[in-house]
Design brief:
Blueprint (H helix, E strand, L loop, with lengths): L7 H11 L3 E5 L8 H14 L2 E5 L11 H20 L4 E4 L9 H21 L5 E4 L11 H10 L6 E3 H8 L5 H20 L2 E5 L1 E5 L2 E6 L8 H10 L4 E5 L4 H19 L1
Parallel strand pairs: 1-2, 2-3, 3-4, 5-6, 6-9
Antiparallel strand pairs: 7-8
The structure holds zinc ion.
Zinc ion (ZN) binds next to loops.
Length: 268
């Protein structure tokens, strides 16, 4: 947000300048980057030692009643995956589906079929990028904690996007050290220690109601217990990347980093 000009490569340099270590490229309104520019992004990220992920289009519903909308959804995710892969991104985050008039079980089976189809396609193309279904914040959206962990344990080539703010907003709970710790224990049981050490996490402040997520807030404005989350991550041996999605992105990212480092220093 504090980058000028507003380009991906300038963003990577700004992230480095701020002392942060990772960035998510937001293809949320579609991919407007060609392969050539993606190659330059990869070079810049390597030079600056910034780990990249990408976020696919918001216009995705793998459980649409209209088959052509499902095809278009897969194409959007695949396009983000292919360009993201050239950028050197490790994973592509996406919002899988809405339940609509189907049960969670039916929705799960349909989402699983399409996600498996996409990982097959990417593997055939030699594209190593991982697909990351996100834990979602609204009760109308596919993507509970359990659905996401099960999906990723069943399909090779996937890894979860653990959005702890979403899960808190959706349940009205999941906001204490003990709850975070048991989520991480479940994560490890389902996906193993190696995946626990390479987690992809979203964090922000969040406003919510009975239907879950309303909107993102800054950490200071919200009730989200990020210190407890960071403590639980550290104590459970988790590693990987945290993407901050607060409206004051850079500030809250730095706050998370500072808080995490203070936890590490307090130990030594
Ligand atoms: Zn998202």
């Amino acid at each position: 947000m504090s980058t000028y000009p507003h380009t991906t490569r300038a963003g990577i340099k700004r992230v480095k300048e701020l002392g942060l270590g990772c960035m998510e490229i937001e293809f949320v309104h579609g991919v407007r980057m060609n392969a050539e520019r993606a190659g330059l992004v990869s070079e810049t990220a390597k030079e600056e030692h910034i780990a990249l992920s990408v976020h696919a289009s918001y216009y995705v519903n793998l459980n649409s009643r209209e088959p052509e909308k499902i095809t278009a959804s897969c194409q959007r995710i695949l396009r983000a995956a292919r360009i993201g892969s050239i950028c050197g991104a490790r994973n592509v985050v996406f919002h899988p589906a809405f339940y609509g008039d189907k049960s969670p079980e039916e929705t799960y089976a349909i989402v699983k079929e399409h996600v498996s189809g996409m990982t097959d396609t990417l593997r055939e193309e030699g594209c190593q990028i991982l697909l990351s279904p996100e834990v979602m914040g609204k009760v109308s959206q596919f993507g509970t904690l359990e659905e996401t962990l099960n999906l990723c344990s069943e399909i090779e080539g996937t890894t979860p996007c653990m959005d702890f703010a979403h899960w808190h907003a959706r349940t009205g709970k999941a906001n204490s050290y003990d709850e975070f710790s048991s989520i991480l224990k479940l994560f490890e049981q389902k996906l193993g220690k190696k995946t626990l050490r390479q987690m992809h996490i979203h964090v922000s402040g969040i406003d919510y109601g009975p239907k879950g997520e309303r909107k993102h807030l800054t950490l200071a404005e919200s009730d989200f217990q990020y210190r407890d989350l960071l403590k639980a991550l550290h104590n459970s041996g988790a590693g990987g990347t945290i993407i901050c999605e607060s409206p004051n992105q850079e500030e809250d990212a730095l706050l998370l980093q500072k808080t995490y480092r203070a936890l590490l220093n307090a130990e030594t």
